[in-house]
Amino acid sequence: MPMQLVLDDGYSISLQLDHHAQEVWAIQFSRAIENERLDQLMERIASAFAAALIGCLDYDLQVPSDAKVQFATAISRELGIALPAEALRFRGAMDEFLDRFAEAYKRHRQNR
Hints:
2 domains; about 5% strand; mainly alpha; two-stranded antiparallel ribbon
């Protein structure tokens, strides 16, 4: 059974499943229908897809790591500069912030 991910804008993505994946999907889908748990299965799939989608995004669009957020927060506090909201949302913006202020932060800490 071929699978397609249908996007709201009319595009679709064909999901290429090997024979085994097709077979076990058919079994799982049948079980969900028989046990009246199709909604639960769909929720699990939606959750797994959302998590997997993040890993497919370009590097600069992904969420910055906790370590980078902590470092940027320390820089912001120590140097008295605003931490842009974009830097908290996107790795690319975070990297730009760190590239711009990390050296000044290190110098400031050495001079204290």
